[in-house]
């Protein structure tokens, strides 16, 4: 298969941070409050991976290198994996698997509800990301997977609630997200396309 | 040397002290950056000399006092206190300081004085967090206490911890410690103490009045919109063995309860 090495490199690069953080958290290398630190890193890592995923199409339009598209779906799955780990750390290490507390949090803390919704969207996309679902859903598949934009907006909102005293870092991510969404608007996407009329996207994902 | 005459704590009761390493590397001190690790990194070279504190407002003897004249008459005492952060984590720290009440008596509050307003240093050249154009805090950081809270024997001004002078990240050279209130009340790097008639507006109240009240007494029954307050993680806490303990009203300092008799603690959070 083409881009095999490239795909492998992306796989390893996306896997390593999570393994490293989990290893550090177990060995008290993440400071006195490892659960909280691990939670924050996985959350931010997931958002970064989602932003990287969403830059693949604009990068392909700019450079016409098919390698970007070859790793897009994999990166999206990694974003989901980080988000899932983020939620598991919250449920297991911060809540101590107390289901009642989780329900209370979902009711009373809107940012947790928003985060859960974003994870649900990513879960649906991850489950339907395989070739079987693509064939089965046909045209609807593409429409369904555009809800990744909604997930991005929810995640950025979720992060806004966590800001305590300084908006700078949040603004950086919000602006990157906004940029990636704007690049998909018809006017801007024609700017990034080198060919006046692209041949259509190489894969339907 | 003040340390030789200091009165040292005999024991910490049944509490285990948080290691100095953790207490000096995991800090909320937004003057030195928004992340927990920022203050330890950015406050390393924080220059605290010369330092003076202005004392003004409803006092008979206002003035600007150098740190030395401020501390000189007081015997330093070691106080081992639980520190409960509003973010649901806590530590046990041996502070070195003197009761705020002793200082206030020296400057003689007038009959009009009802509250004490504290102001931290504003100096963007020395405090990198204040340079951010996107900070939600309207510098300088301001905190406040009711006069009777300020006069309570548990309330101290600290100049040291763990038997040494305060590190920059912990609020050098002079900070407040009010052990029955959430940590953000214990303002760091104080440069002004003002006795007032009106309740002062505190920094967090200004940012989010629904989330942060003036009192901020530790209370497991009153949740913050973001953090549940019934339990806390006593640090250091392991990943697989989280050190979760129940939070106590007034952080376990029952002796302050009389200050709040007749006060609805749900409304006055």
Automatic annotation (TrEMBL), chain A:
Keyword entries, A-Z: Cell membrane, Electron transport, Flavoprotein, FMN, Heme, Iron, Membrane, Metal-binding, Transmembrane, Transmembrane helix, Transport
Protein location: Cell membrane; Membrane
Topology in the lipid bilayer: Multi-pass membrane protein
Residue intervals passing through the bilayer: 43-63, 75-97, 109-127, 148-164, 170-187
Comment on bound cofactor: Binds 1 FMN per subunit. Binds 1 heme b (iron(II)-protoporphyrin IX) group per subunit.
Transport among keywords: yes
Cofactor(s) the protein needs: FMN; heme b
Positions of the Ferric oxidoreductase domain: 47-156
UniProt key word Cell membrane: yes
Known partners and oligomeric status: Heterodimer of a catalytic subunit (MsrP) and a heme-binding subunit (MsrQ).
Functional summary from the UniProt entry: Part of the MsrPQ system that repairs oxidized periplasmic proteins containing methionine sulfoxide residues (Met-O), using respiratory chain electrons. Thus protects these proteins from oxidative-stress damage caused by reactive species of oxygen and chlorine generated by the host defense mechanisms. MsrPQ is essential for the maintenance of envelope integrity under bleach stress, rescuing a wide series of structurally unrelated periplasmic proteins from methionine oxidation.
Family statement drawn from the similarity comment of this UniProt entry: Belongs to the MsrQ family.
Name of the protein in its database record: Protein-methionine-sulfoxide reductase heme-binding subunit MsrQ
Classification lineage: Bacteria, Pseudomonadati, Pseudomonadota, Gammaproteobacteria, Pseudomonadales
């Amino acid at each position: 298969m083409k881009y095999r090495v490239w795909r492998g490199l992306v796989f390893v690069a996306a896997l390593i941070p999570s393994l490293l953080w989990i290893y550090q958290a177990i060995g008290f290398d993440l400071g006195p409050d490892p659960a909280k630190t691990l939670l924050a890193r996985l959350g931010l890592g997931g958002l970064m991976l989602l932003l990287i995923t969403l830059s693949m199409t604009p990068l392909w339009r700019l450079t016409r290198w098919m390698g970007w598209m070859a790793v897009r779906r994999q990166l999206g799955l990694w974003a989901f994996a980080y988000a899932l780990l983020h939620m598991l750390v919250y449920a297991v290490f911060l809540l101590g698997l107390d289901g009642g507390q989780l329900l209370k949090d979902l009711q009373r803390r809107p940012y947790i509800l928003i985060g859960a919704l974003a994870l649900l969207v990513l879960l649906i996309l991850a489950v339907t990301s395989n070739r079987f679902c693509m064939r089965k859903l046909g045209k609807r598949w593409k429409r369904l997977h555009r809800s990744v934009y909604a997930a991005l907006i929810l995640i950025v909102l979720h992060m806004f609630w966590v800001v305590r005293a300084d908006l700078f870092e949040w603004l950086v991510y919000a602006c990157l997200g906004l940029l990636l969404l704007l690049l998909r608007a018809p006017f801007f996407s024609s700017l990034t396309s080198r060919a006046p009329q692209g041949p259509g996207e190489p894969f339907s994902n | 040397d003040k340390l030789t005459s200091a009165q040292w704590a005999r024991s910490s009761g049944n509490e285990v002290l948080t290691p100095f390493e953790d207490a000096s590397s995991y800090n909320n001190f937004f003057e030195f950056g928004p992340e927990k690790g920022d203050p330890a990194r950015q406050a390393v070279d924080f220059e605290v000399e010369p330092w003076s504190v202005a004392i003004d407002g409803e006092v008979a003897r206002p003035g600007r006092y150098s740190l030395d004249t401020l501390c000189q008459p007081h015997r330093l005492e070691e106080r081992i206190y639980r520190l409960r952060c509003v973010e649901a984590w806590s530590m046990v720290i041996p502070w070195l300081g003197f009761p705020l009440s002793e200082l206030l008596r020296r400057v003689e509050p007038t009959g009009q004085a009802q509250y004490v307003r504290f102001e931290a240093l504003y100096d963007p050249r020395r405090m990198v967090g204040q340079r951010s154009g996107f900070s939600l805090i309207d510098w300088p950081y301001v905190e406040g206490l009711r006069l009777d809270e300020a006069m309570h024997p548990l309330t101290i001004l600290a100049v040291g911890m763990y038997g040494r002078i305060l590190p920059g990240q912990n609020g050098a050279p002079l900070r407040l410690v009010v052990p029955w209130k959430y940590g953000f009340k214990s303002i760091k790097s104080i440069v002004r103490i003002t006795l007032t008639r009106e309740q002062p507006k505190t920094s967090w109240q200004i940012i989010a009045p629904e989330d942060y009240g003036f009192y901020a007494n530790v209370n497991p029954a009153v949740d913050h919109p973001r953090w549940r307050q019934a339990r806390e993680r006593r640090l250091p806490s392991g990943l697989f063995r989280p050190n979760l303990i129940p939070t106590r009203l007034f952080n376990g300092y029952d002796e302050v309860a009389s200050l709040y008799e007749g006060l609805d603690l749900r409304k006055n959070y």
